[in-house]
TrEMBL record:
GO terms for molecular function: DNA-directed RNA polymerase activity; nucleic acid binding; zinc ion binding. GO terms for biological process: termination of RNA polymerase I transcription. DNA-dependent RNA polymerase catalyzes the transcription of DNA into RNA using the four ribonucleoside triphosphates as substrates. This is DNA-directed RNA polymerase subunit. Gene3D superfamilies: 2.20.25.10. Keywords: DNA-directed RNA polymerase, Metal-binding, Nucleus, Transcription, Zinc, Zinc-finger. CDD domains: Zn-ribbon_RPA12.
Length: 122
């Protein structure tokens, strides 16, 4: 009888035997010829792989175009025609963020050049 990892084959006909239990005391009966065989399969199977073993167009595309982004240089604010309650300036900037659950509206955080900020829940 031959065993490859956890797969055990019949010594009489070479058919694949039922799943191994990993103990030599156990006997496995061949479903093809009916012969009884000792279970010589391993108790554990260890496999190792690395990302390059599974080539993928998407993975190659992601690895080839890596961009470094500095968080402090990203401008996420947009200008809006809104009156600042503190100084009366007509143009302020705002950022939309999702602070509540997904089925509720986003929160707009307004910022004025005078340093005043306020928010509105939409």
């Amino acid at each position: 009888m031959a065993a490859i990892g956890s797969m055990v084959f019949c010594t009489d006909c070479g058919n694949l035997l039922p799943a191994t239990k990993g103990t030599k005391k156990n006997l496995l009966q061949c479903e093809c010829c009916g012969a009884w065989n000792k279970d010589t399969g391993s108790k554990t199977t260890l496999t190792k792989s690395k990302p390059s073993d599974f080539p993928s167009f998407l993975r190659q595309k992601l690895q080839s175009n890596v961009q470094a982004i500095e968080r402090h240089n990203i401008n996420t604010q947009t200008a809006a025609q809104e009156r600042c309650p503190n100084c009366g300036r007509e143009e302020v900037t705002y950022t939309a963020v999702q602070l509540r659950s997904a089925d509720e509206g986003s929160t707009l955080i307004y910022n004025c050049k005078c340093g005043f900020s306020w928010n509105e829940n939409n």
